[in-house]
């Protein structure tokens, strides 16, 4: 793990964030592409933007926890679903 430190922009502290949705097809090794989750790409824009050069792999996948109360006790559930996108 790397120690975290803030970045700077025009002399002000910043938080650098990124999310890598795609992996270059040449770097995928033996991994199989996976579909985007519906909440991430409901209109298949990311799916269609990949073209033939990029893929979306398990390592690019983001998992979301949903928190809710059940009989007064909080519960967290890992949620993930598949999406049916078609390239245009």
Structure commentary:
The protein has about 90 residues and is mainly beta. It has a domain at about 20-80. Helices cover about 5% and strands about 25% of the residues. It contains 1 helix and 6 strands. It has one helix spanning about 45-50, and strands at about 5-10, 10-15, 25, 55, 65-70, 75-80. The strands form 3 sheets. Strands 1-2 form a two-stranded antiparallel ribbon. Strands 3-4 form a two-stranded antiparallel sheet. The chain has a two-stranded antiparallel ribbon with strand order 5-6. A hairpin with a 2-residue loop joins strand 1 and strand 2. The longest helix has 5 residues, at about 45-50. It is extended. The N and C termini lie far apart (about 40 Å). The mean pLDDT is about 80.
Report a brief summary of the structure.
The protein is mainly beta and 88 residues long.
**Roughly what percent helix?**
under 10%
**SSE arrangement, N to C:** EEEHEEE
Class per helix and strand makeup? mainly beta
Stretches with pLDDT under 50, minimum 5 residues: none
Largest sheet: 2 strands, antiparallel
* Coarse morphology: extended
Number of helical segments with 4 or more residues: 1
Beta-sheet strand percentage?
25-35%
**Compute the gyration radius: what is it?**
17 Å
Oligomer state equals single chain
Give a count of the beta strands, DSSP E runs of length 2 or more.
6
Widest beta sheet: strand line-up: 1-2
Cα separation of the termini = 40 Å
* Average pLDDT score: 79
